[in-house]
Design brief:
The protein is mainly alpha-helical. Helix content is 73%, strand content 0%.
Length: 283
């Protein structure tokens, strides 16, 4: 295991573990992330509060760990959904060819040409009920996942299409076709498994990008809404007290930086693992 993969595993595993054990630790210690203690506003780091408290006296460490659950869940779910849609479209376009390929790729180009961040902001600001999504905390998570996935699939689709076009010309695919294998079997059994490398790399990159998008939307007040903690809305709440209590912005900012860097390093390690030419150059 190289250094990049080790760093990615430590950071992502640590964030996931913190998110999983945070509710258990809070229940054991009798602490609630939403409990307000105005007498403890802006308390500096201490044994009782290792990362200090925020403007409402809430424990920053606990909220940071709970925010990891939200940010990682949104990033992973949106990335998987975008990869699933992109893989389906790319596989269909590359294997079917002709007008189907032309239509799907022009649709992909149209989505890629959209200014993603402004469109995400407009859609996130819309009333969930008007676009058929549930409200509440779960509705906010679902809305972010759906919006990000709806605009995150084109890159995966183009990668899978390119891999499919290359694989379709290989001898083992031609042999399977000559032996009478159906187009669906050829696509799913012979082509799709060999597209795993670009799909995994694109998914790993999409996780980091989605976490950034969620953080931006939550920072602007359009993503995950308080009192549910996420790293983005923690940054948004800290912007007015950056000089009075700088740790309120420091910890969520460092968390976003570390996790996004870890996903990028993980994608790079996967790319090196599946690309023999890069492995040769690295050695």
């Amino acid at each position: 295991m190289n250094a990049r993969l080790t760093f990615a595993a430590v950071v992502l595993g640590g964030a996931a573990l913190a998110g999983l054990v945070a509710p258990l630790f809070a229940a054991q210690a009798g602490i609630e992330s939403a409990s307000i203690d105005l007498a403890m506003r802006y308390a500096p780091p201490s044994l009782a509060h290792p990362l200090g408290t925020d403007e409402l006296g809430r424990d920053v460490a606990l909220r940071l760990a709970l925010g990891a659950r939200v940010s990682l869940a949104v990033g992973l779910c949106a990335a998987l959904a975008a990869s699933l849609v992109g893989t389906t479209i790319g596989l269909l376009a590359g294997y079917a060819g002709g007008r189907t390929d032309a239509f799907l790729m022009r649709t992909t180009d149209a989505v890629l040409s959209l200014p993603v961040l402004p469109v995400l902001i407009v859609l996130a600001a819309a009333d969930p009920a008007k676009i058929g999504l549930p409200g509440g905390d779960a509705g906010g998570l679902v809305r972010i996942v759906v919006i990000v996935a709806a605009f995150g699939w084109p890159k995966v689709a183009r990668l899978v299409r390119a891999a499919t076009l290359s694989l379709a010309a290989r001898d083992f695919v031609r042999a399977a076709t000559a032996l009478g294998a159906s187009p669906l079997r050829v696509a799913l059994v012979h082509i799709l498994p060999n597209c795993a490398a670009p799909i995994l790399v694109a998914t790993a990159l999409a996780v980091g990008g989605t976490i950034l998008f969620e953080s931006v939307l939550s920072f602007l007040g359009l993503g995950i809404q308080p009192p549910v903690p996420s790293w983005g809305n923690m940054l948004g709440g800290a912007q007015e007290t950056i000089w009075q209590a700088p740790w309120l912005a420091l910890w969520p900012g460092l968390s976003i930086l570390a996790v996004v860097a870890a996903t990028n390093l993980l994608a790079d390690a996967l790319q090196e693992r599946f690309d023999p030419r890069r492995r040769v150059n690295a050695t």
